[in-house]
Design goal:
about 130 residues; alpha/beta; 6 strands
Length: about 130
Amino acid sequence: MKKTGIFNSEISRIIAKLGHKDKIAIVDLGFPIPSHVERIDIVLDFGKPTFEEVLKVILKELKVEQVILAEESSEQFEEILKENIPDVEFSKISHEELKQLTNNVVAVIRTGDVVPYSNAILVSGVIF
């Protein structure tokens, strides 16, 4: 049995196979996920787990070099990202562009978050 790290086997597998510049998305409850992209649905209840709860766990194993979020995202959401992922490049694009960009991610992790525009794409970095 695994002793530490991410215990969700699907998320653990995805992170282990990411290479430099690969992308994963963490999205809210209502985000439209392209049918051809791997969906990891971890919604437990309305609002649970939150985007931030999921992000904190993912960051235990994933090196991030860039975060892409929607211009429509709240300042509070952006602050959550910056507090948890300091010293990385942040890019803002329209929500429509963000939805289009998810066509090119390795996987989408769907949270139970119900705060509008609580969606981000994480670009994998390198550890050396």
